[in-house]
Amino acid sequence: MDTVNAFIASVVSTPWVPFVIALAVLVDAFFPPVPSESLVIAAAAAAVSVGQPDLVLVVLCAAVGAIIGDNLTFTIGRSVGLERFAWMRRRRMRAALNSAGRGIARRPAVFLMSARYIPVGRVAVNLVAGASGFPRRKFFLLSIVAGVTWASYSVAIGLLAGHLLHGNALLGMLVGIAGGVLSGLIVDLVMRLLARRSARSTAVGTRSHDVEEAPAESLRATSEPECIGAE
């Protein structure tokens, strides 16, 4: 274990780590398999035991990567739409895009902010925001807030795990990563529940509208012959 911790210390002490994190976060904005959250959390957890990398620089680089990546995804949606590439037409992505569309229509700021914490969710929401004509300036401002809060939150998870397992960089990193994954799953679950509730509300509203329209149509249908007879 000491050998592993020494290796971790040598890796995280290199000056290029924060910039690798920034690049990983940027790519993760439109390619979810890249584990950007895990890198940010692991770096913060290791910093508790090792003293490196600099946490302010980690937050800054992670936030910048998130902001640039999210805006690139927004631009892709604005430029090519939601059908151009094969991965956009996959069943899971189509479901995510449809859910994102409903969410943005009802609660744009909430969905754009929350999506940053969900790997596939943020891709779908940012693509839909771009394709639907969401104001670029407003999206940019929201992406700044989302990127900074997400980076700070990820570092905070790593710090908590690192302090709980102080002196063991490896376990601190693993616990921090597990905590980050769990929090992402919780946010994803909450967003799914909100989307389903929104869909049910829309369906109920549509049915109510149809029921209200039916008597009016019936009244017009019965009154028209009487008018003809009167003439």
Automatic annotation (TrEMBL):
<dbReference type="InterPro" id="IPR032818">
    <property type="entry name" value="DedA-like"/>
</dbReference>
<keyword id="KW-1003">Cell membrane</keyword>
<keyword id="KW-0812">Transmembrane</keyword>
<dbReference type="GO" id="GO:0005886">
    <property type="term" value="C:plasma membrane"/>
</dbReference>
<feature type="region of interest" description="Disordered">
    <location>
        <begin position="205"/>
        <end position="231"/>
    </location>
</feature>
<feature type="transmembrane region" description="Helical">
    <location>
        <begin position="170"/>
        <end position="191"/>
    </location>
</feature>
<comment type="similarity">
    <text>Belongs to the DedA family.</text>
</comment>
<dbReference type="Pfam" id="PF09335">
    <property type="entry name" value="VTT_dom"/>
</dbReference>
<feature type="domain" description="VTT">
    <location>
        <begin position="34"/>
        <end position="158"/>
    </location>
</feature>
<feature type="transmembrane region" description="Helical">
    <location>
        <begin position="7"/>
        <end position="27"/>
    </location>
</feature>
<protein>
    <submittedName>
        <fullName>DedA family protein</fullName>
    </submittedName>
</protein>
<keyword id="KW-1133">Transmembrane helix</keyword>
<keyword id="KW-0472">Membrane</keyword>
<dbReference type="InterPro" id="IPR032816">
    <property type="entry name" value="VTT_dom"/>
</dbReference>
<feature type="transmembrane region" description="Helical">
    <location>
        <begin position="139"/>
        <end position="164"/>
    </location>
</feature>
